[in-house]
Amino acid sequence: MTQIPALLLFASSFNLGYIQVPGEGWNAPDYGASYTPFAAESLNMTCYGMIQDTSYGIRGFDVSEDGDWVYGVIEDPSFDSWLLIYNVSDSTNPVEIARILLNHYTGGGCLINDTLLYTVSWVRFIVFNIKNPADPIYVSECDSGVRASDMVRIGNIVFCIYGFNTRFFLVDVSDPYNPERIYYENLSGSYADLFYHPSISPYLYVMRTVNVSFDDDNFSSYLYAYDVSDPSSPQLVDSFRFRFFTYPDYAHLMASKSIAIYTNPGSGKTYVWFLGGVVVCFDITDIHDPSPIGWWYPERLLFASDVHEDRAYITTYKGVVVYDLGGDPFNLSPIAYYDFDYFDYDCLFQNIIWHRNLVYATCNQRDLDKKLAIFHYTSDTLPDTANPYMEWIQTVYDRPGLRFFLKDDASVSFSLFSTVGQRVYYQDMGLLRPGLHYLEMPDRGAGVYFLFLKANDVSFSTRLVFTR
Question: From CA 59, how far away is CA 188, in angstroms rounded?
């Protein structure tokens, strides 16, 4: 694959003189590092169930508190927007219950608040009563002025943002029968994200990325920190931006599409990771003086994130990946992932929610029929990153086998089992030197298998799918 040299620049919003990096204080890969996404099928993650749909994709969604219902807003081939109601009480068999026509234009975000549901369809903020989850009842609406791709509720205020043109607005829902838009700001940009969690209160973070196109060779990403102690009157505390230069053909791939933020309870430091084809990390413990930590190419093209405890659950171009945020902020490694067997760069799985130990991810891609997938992350199998001898492992689809990287000398053996527990293959590879190795297996045809790999006294297991 073509190598992608890049240059990262950083600037404070109050001092627009750019500082070139890599430089002092920055960690970075070597120039020319290739962007090579993983092809592995899964690690420590299982796909429980899936909804298939031929619509253009779920624009926004939310999960009920009891975890039994998912509501999403979709756009059909006629550009009508609909409110979808899914019963997911059996996560292995999610079922569409109904869909309600919102209007004849594109829909947007979706947010549940107890027995109320907020959504934005075209330029209308709409409230539904979902006391009967299977039969939402229209309550009221107000003019939003623009669509919403992401929504966050703080008290009686719903914060909304629309990514395509980055419009930021607030709606007061203290009276659900009379919602009122009370704030509107045009930030401009191509991608946008909201991030709020009580652990980082009283700040609400807003990210936007601008100048993303096939004929532009750079993008700028901004982070704004708002004090929302009084949600009805957010106050901008500070902001900063950075610029990333790459080849024009890769600009929209490399661009930051969302953020993950985490405060380490041990050090007390707060970090932000800008997620996209490049990951860029800053220490924002002091938002007035953000400190650059580093940037790198992730194994996958990253989209939306949801942070729970010390883990970030992130959608990718073909599934989901989980990162442990509790360690070195510059050395994030996947502790779990699930990749479907298709490949595309065009914004496949985008929105994601962690809720009651399940991970819900939706697809916003008109050409695919996988619209809602439900995953479970488990630590029952040893994470790859816990193996002191093996750095990563991946499935090879063009021929049955795996590639793995040894950090140190190790005696390696592996077994392959069928889904009924029969061992169908075993190989002792002997003592291997550090470095990249290819593990080849006889072609057993397409199917699901379980791999048990042993490096010295440490075992690794994962579920594999061979496409042929």
Answer: 20
User: 199-213, 257-271, 281-295: which range is least confident on average?
Assistant: 199-213
Which pLDDT band holds residue 130 (cuts at 50, 70, 90)?
very high
- Give a yes or no: residue 15 inside a domain: no
Q: Are 337 and 453 found together in one domain?
A: no
Q: Are residues 416 and 359 in the same domain?
A: no
Residue ranges with strand state E in 36-143? 42-43, 45-52, 58-63, 69-75, 81-87, 95-103, 107-113, 116-121, 124-129, 137-143
Q: How many domains does the structure of the chain reveal?
A: 2
Q: Of 302, 296, 354, 359, which is closest to residue 328 (Cα–Cα)?
A: 296
Average pLDDT over residues 174-185: 93
Q: Identify which of 147, 123, 171 has the alpha carbon closest to the alpha carbon of residue 59.
A: 147
Mean of pLDDT over the chain: 76
Percent helix, strand, coil in the chain (nearest 5)? Answer: 5, 55, 40
Chain-centroid distance, C-alpha 157: 25
User: What does the pLDDT read at residue 167?
Assistant: 83
pLDDT at position 370, please? 55
- Fill in the amino acid letter for 96: E
> Is-cis flag, bond preceding 77, omega within 30?
no
Looking at 379, 401, 424, which one is the last position of a domain? 379
Residues 404 and 338 in one domain: no
Q: Strand, coil or helix: what is 54?
A: coil
Give residue for tokens 């399940």. Answer: 358
CA distance 351 to 433: 41
Smallest CA-to-CA distance from 191 within 217, 157, 159, 223 is with 223
In a domain, 343, yes or no: yes
List the strands of the sheet with 150-154, edge to edge: 150-154, 157-162, 167-172, 180-186
Q: Which amino acid, one-letter code, is at 48?
A: Y
The answer to whether position 421 is within a domain reads yes
Q: Looking at the structure, tell me whether residues 454 and 373 fall in a common domain.
A: no
Question: Last residue of some domain: 379, 404, 430?
Answer: 379
SS3 283: strand
Print the domain residue range for 394: 390-466
Listed residue (370, 362, 303, 353) closest to 58, CA to CA: 362
Q: Kindly report, residue by residue over 14-27, the tens digit of the pLDDT.
A: 322 333 333 334 44
CATH of the domain at 460: 2.60.40.3080
